Amino acid sequence: MNGDVAASLLSEFDLETETETLPQPAGSSQDELLVLGIETSCDETCASILRGKDNVLANVISSSADLHRRYGGVVPEVASRAHVQAMNPAIAEALRLADLTLWDMNAIAVTVGPGLVGSLVVGVAAAKALASVLEVPLLPINHLEAHIYANFLEHPDFAPPAVGLIVSGGHSLLVHMQAHGLYDVLGETLDDAAGEAFDKVARYLGLGYPGGPAIDQMALGGNKRAINFPRAVMHRGYDFSFSGLKTAVQDYLRKQEEQGKEVKLEDVCASFQEAVVDVQVHKTIKAAQELMVSTVFVSGGVASNSRLRELMSAMCAENDLRLHYPSPEYCTDNAAMVACCGHFRYIRGIRADSSISAEPNLHLA
Ligand code: KG4
Ligand code: ZN
């Protein structure tokens, strides 16, 4: 790219500017737009190719979870090194699956934050290099926003305004999506994220990492009313808290051991899960009612929890609310949701220049 071309591109594609007269890629309508999504915010190296807003041509996920398992959680340096090794092969595999080349791409969308800085920089560097060589727009994406956009991949009728949960290993937020790109964070966790609580409790129970799926599975055979674990900050605003619940599980396990009583893992899992889900569902429904919003969504890794889906579905039906949640493959980290968020930003005319960088503490609003 010569200097003049670069300068004109950069002036046209200023960060966060919107204009009505943006150049469209040759022969490409919005439905044909091809976006390469890149996601490396935690321990999954992901590359996806999206045609239009919801035609996922490839969704490659290379997880380094096996490398972290023995430590009981993600080790940032290990995750970062794994991203370096997996990034190029993941992009190559996505292109192979989509039967396309890099030169077919119209834009590159990449997660810039929040997340682990050493992980984010790998994806950001790859995206910047590609966008520069291919001379296509670079679209910086907020990981939390991408989790919401996972709902657009499968639900043509999903649209703001909507109220929903973003519940993952790193975050627990109750959000009001007023319009594309316009969010109001209604509540957040005061301590651990929901997924983190699942992972920690799974560790106490010897169920391994990641703990969410293991607890979900184990809970299927248990009684959710067996142990009455506390519902933290149930009636205090829209914030969440999980540390008291975590301690209650530890106390319960210790007492059972001291008294020589058997611990029925299935019951502990089902009762713990119910305590987490109960609070989240009730706060979400209350927020939708108070804001008079009729669409509800759930996103993030914990959104694949079967009890959360079941109770949220029942409560939404009871309260005449429309509920959307992604398939499990789009709940946990993936680049299809990043590409989807990129698609909507692209058509809104939002562009970035090559000065973008990883933003580990990026907020949604
Ligand atoms: O969204 P995600 O892949 O990564 C982050 O952005 O953090 O979420 C991962 C989290 C982990 O904590 C994992 O235990 C949890 O999602 N998770 C679940 C389930 N599947 C994944 N938690 C509860 N039930 C599940 N079925
Ligand atoms: Zn995530």
Detail the topology: elements first, then pairings.
Blueprint: H1 3-12, E1 34-39, E2 44-51, E3 55-63, H2 65-69, H3 76-98, E4 107-113, H4 117-134, E5 138-142, H5 143-149, E6 162-167, E7 172-179, E8 182-188, H6 194-204, H7 211-219, H8 243-258, H9 265-291, E9 295-299, H10 306-318, E10 322-324, H11 328-331, H12 336-347
Parallel strand pairs: 1-4, 4-5, 6-9, 9-10
Antiparallel strand pairs: 1-2, 2-3, 6-7, 7-8
Helix pairs in contact: 3-4, 5-12, 6-7, 6-8, 7-9, 9-10
| Major sheet details | 5 strands, mixed
Order of helices and strands: HEEEHHEHEHEEEHHHHEHEHH
State the total count of DSSP E strands: 10
CATH superfamily annotation of the largest domain: ATPase, nucleotide binding domain
Low-confidence spans: pLDDT under 50, at least 5 residues?
1-22
Chain oligomer state: single chain
Mean pLDDT: 91
CATH architecture of the largest domain: 2-Layer Sandwich
| Cofactors and ligands | 5'-O-[(R)-(carboxyoxy)(hydroxy)phosphoryl]adenosine, zinc ion
Global outline: globular
CATH topological fold name of the largest domain? Nucleotidyltransferase, domain 5
CATH class of the largest domain: Alpha Beta
Radius of gyration: 21 Å
Query: Helix coverage percent of residues?
Result: 40-55%
As for the number of domains, it is 2
Q: Structural class given helices, strands, pairing?
A: alpha/beta
For the biggest β-sheet, the strand order reads 3-2-1-4-5
Name the beta content range.
15-25%
Separation of the first and last Cα atoms: 35 Å
By DSSP (H or I, 4+ residues per run), the number of helices equals 12
